[in-house]
Design goal:
Elements (H helix, E strand, L loop, with lengths): L6 H22 L5 H21 L3 H28 L4
Helix pairs in contact: 1-2, 2-3
């Protein structure tokens, strides 16, 4: 493997840490905050996308696109549920 460890790789590693952290949170927490869970996943997908645009890997870019869309769907659903409860801030 001859890939350089540059700024794009560091950004990608930060994105990986976000996604792994969100999955650990989902698995280990008794109750989860959907804004924290999906927001962290969205941030991870965005950071990985930046890295993947610089070091192009089409299959991984598609995966991160779907990961981001699912996270956005989760955030929208959480906002709607919060609005229905009447605790919009």
């Amino acid at each position: 493997m001859n890939a350089p460890f540059d700024w794009a790789s560091m950004v990608g590693l930060a994105g990986t840490a976000c996604i792994i952290g969100a999955y650990a949170y989902l698995t280990l927490a008794r109750a989860t905050n959907p804004f924290l869970l999906h927001g962290t996943n969205l941030m991870g997908a965005a950071l990985l996308t930046v890295s993947l645009i610089y070091h192009t890997n089409w299959a991984s870019l598609v995966l991160e696109g779907f990961w981001a869309l699912i996270a956005i769907f989760g955030l929208v659903r959480a906002w709607r549920a919060r609005a229905l409860r009447g605790d919009v801030g």
